[in-house]
């Protein structure tokens, strides 16, 4: 190939938003992982919330026995049995929801995007607690809205900032508050009292309150896990994001939910839903079957499994010098401080320059979960979605890596001095 | 229920874009259809491009024999076998595409949205030929871009406006041209020569050229159907939208494609793809199997079926006084003029006040396919996706309805005087 002429290179520019759009911090290391695997290295994937739990048999039965000949569009709001099953399921958890309060979306991802498009205009501000699920930034860029971060800190176990701190960042352009509870990426579960305080603030200041409750079923505490839809007086302001992905370990089904008691919100979101026609039909049938046929014992077993994994992870991390792991009450993530200066470099090094007995780990560097520049540089998100045996091997790799990593901070640097 | 207190009604306003977002013209009559069906009326659905053709056996086999235990996310750009199968399929049609030129999306819908988000910023202008696929307006509203309509006319069989007409509407804010070929909603197929002219204009003026080629396999002519990816020198500017929905009659699979030879466009679009994680995994496997295992004879049979339907439709419409049906060379739609003043009212009346032998038809009023106010008020889009027997019954209903409709125009009103 010779040099190309200038004319060949001539092209219009991409949009500013495409240029500004963040690459996924979770997925950007994948190319290095592929290269490592091609060198025969075994990788323990701790970077993405892809559970290894089997999808329920009910899902496969519904899909395989659908009896469908022509795979048609479904209703833009979702198939009726699924909307009903969702409402029934919430009802059993004392969350009052009608089928008409539910729009079925292409995963929780699309539910979040629809909420942004329906509630906020370009330039509007939405307060969000950082570190937050990195893809919120992508949906915000798509929708042209500004995420205003309030920082939660590992020193405080990533608990919610105080209500006064929320009040302090509100401006005339603020239109909403976005929370994730239980939190991805920190595993924190917010207290019912504080959620009610935030809700009161939202109500008083005429703001929407969106709560991503995708990890509701991964809660390991004993106190009540309060849904935003259970807070009285918030019917007009509250939107709940949910998903089948984690609940039933069917991430690839792309079935999520936008739920609100405010019919105007549902009607507005449905217009965006109509434009994209529908969520996948067969997968919706599978998820409806899961909701109707999965006994509570399934969730109990899953929770027990994750509690075991969490306990193991916390215990193994505590044995690695300089590592800080906060309290984790839900989801299947830990936001962990490592004794390194830059976890982006460290995570890459793990794939390009390291292995222990032919194995290494893929971590999600935390900087992509923060918007405030400089924060999270010494943190990583660990998704403990692997079996205990694999978690043990992964932590062995991490411990060894931190012993030999050229960029490691010395213990005296104070990284452990919390 | 007593009157609600003012406080109960207090809520923040939805976004301006949600308010401005058009309701689907195709789906907004559905509630009247549901009511009619509950009165025992049989409805012939001519309003939506939902083919009745069976999905290929290869799809069901791939889905039922996936052997998957845990339904995981797929790669954000799509599963590798599907991207390869798509490239191979284009190759067989002399459209030069590599797997890396393809991003798998949640239907052609998401491919269109990703193209808008990747190429255009809020306020940018994109020239589009009206009448156009109504949901383009929804994606434009989501992305904040302005669609600038160039009108094609039933009197000209909805052929493309002249290249000079395109040039005349370009402004410094114009960033792209969007075409659909074969056209939904008109069934028009654009000539290769004119497409090349438009491409040259786009290239000269540094514009992106997006062509929605979702109906490529539904082409009933004998001349070459030119893909935008076959136009030399357009590698940097061209984006093709495609979908499995119509091709394999798997609308409910939600599997579409954004295709471009420009790696920057693919890289930019992939960032939006990463934010939403992936398209549905199982459905992608089904579509990959369709692409690899469907013989050309399947498409020949489908085309033959649609040619028969088109011929029947055109013939039956020609027997209804005052109805104008233009030439149709592709897709499975006809944009038809009716001897009524307002097809929105007529389409509703068909559901609320009319039946012939207990049957009626659901039509898509054409006004929603235009952005220029007042255009299309006497047109409807007919999707001929029903068997010939059902089409006969539907046209019998339409003919009878136009005889008894109180708002019908008299033949002397000139509706037929083309």
Distance N terminus to C terminus of chain A? 57 Å
Secondary-structure element string of chain A: HHHEHHEHEHEHEHEEHEHHHEHEEEH
Using DSSP, what is the number of strands of chain A?
12
CATH superfamily of the largest domain in chain A, please? Answer: Type I PLP-dependent aspartate aminotransferase-like (Major domain)
Q: Give the largest interface pair and sizes.
A: A-B, 82 and 82 residues
CATH topology call of the largest domain in chain A: Aspartate Aminotransferase, domain 2
> How many domain units of chain A?
2
* Fraction in helix of chain A: 25-40%
The gyration radius over C-alpha positions of chain A equals 22 Å
Describe the main β-sheet of chain A briefly. 7 strands, mixed
Stretches with pLDDT under 50, minimum 5 residues of chain A: 1-9, 413-418
Structural class of the helix and strand makeup of chain A?
A: alpha/beta
Please tell me the CATH architecture of the largest domain in chain A by its name: 3-Layer(aba) Sandwich
CATH C-level class of the largest domain in chain A: Alpha Beta
Query: What spatial order of strands do you see in the largest sheet of chain A?
Result: 2-8-7-6-5-3-4
Integer average pLDDT of chain A: 93
Q: Using the alpha-carbon principal axes, give the shape of chain A.
A: globular
The protein's oligomeric status is homodimer
Tally of contiguous helical segments of chain A: 15
State which percent range the strand residues of chain A make up: 5-15%
């Amino acid at each position: 190939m010779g040099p190309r002429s200038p004319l060949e290179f001539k092209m219009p520019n991409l949009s500013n938003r495409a240029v500004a759009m963040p690459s996924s911090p979770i997925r950007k290391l994948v190319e290095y992982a592929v290269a490592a695997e091609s060198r025969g290295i075994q990788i323990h994937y701790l970077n993405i919330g892809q559970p290894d739990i089997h999808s329920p048999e009910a899902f496969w039965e519904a899909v395989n026995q659908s009896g469908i000949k022509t795979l048609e569009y479904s209703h833009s709001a979702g198939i009726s049995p699924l909307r009903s099953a969702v409402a029934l399921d919430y009802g059993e958890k004392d969350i009052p929801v009608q089928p008409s309060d539910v729009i079925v979306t292409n995963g929780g991802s699309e539910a979040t995007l629809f909420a942004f498009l329906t509630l906020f205009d370009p330039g509007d501000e939405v307060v969000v607690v950082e570190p937050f699920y990195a893809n919120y930034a992508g949906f915000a860029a798509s929708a042209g809205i500004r995420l205003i971060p309030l920082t939660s800190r590992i020193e405080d176990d990533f608990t919610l900032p105080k209500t006064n701190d929320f009040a302090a960042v509100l401006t005339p352009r603020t239109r909403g508050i976005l929370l994730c509870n239980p939190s991805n990426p920190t595993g924190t579960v917010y207290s019912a009292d504080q959620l009610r305080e935030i809700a009161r603030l939202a109500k008083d200041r005429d703001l929407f309150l969106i709560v991503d409750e995708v990890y509701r079923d991964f809660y390991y505490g004993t106190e009540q896990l309060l849904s935003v839809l259970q807070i009285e007086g918030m019917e007009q302001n509250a939107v709940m994001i949910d998903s089948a992905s984690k609940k039933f370990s069917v991430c690839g089904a792309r079935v999520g939910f936008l739920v609100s008691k405010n019919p105007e919100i549902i009607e507005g979101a449905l217009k965006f839903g109509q434009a994209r026609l529908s969520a996948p039909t067969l997968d919706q049938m599978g998820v409806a079957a899961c909701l109707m046929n999965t006994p509570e014992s399934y969730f109990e077993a899953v929770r027990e499994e994750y509690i075991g994994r969490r306990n193991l992870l916390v215990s193994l991390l505590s044995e690695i010098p300089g590592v800080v792991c906060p309290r984790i009450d839900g989801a299947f993530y830990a936001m962990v401080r490592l004794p390194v200066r830059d976890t982006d470099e460290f995570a890459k090094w793990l794939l390009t320059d390291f292995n222990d007995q032919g194995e290494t780990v893929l971590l999600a560097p935390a900087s992509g979960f923060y918007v405030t520049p400089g924060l999270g540089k010494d943190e990583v998100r660990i998704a403990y979605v692997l079996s205990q045996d694999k978690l043990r091997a992964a932590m062995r790799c991490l411990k060894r890596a931190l012993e030999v990593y050229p960029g490691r901070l010395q213990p005296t640097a104070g990284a452990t001095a919390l």
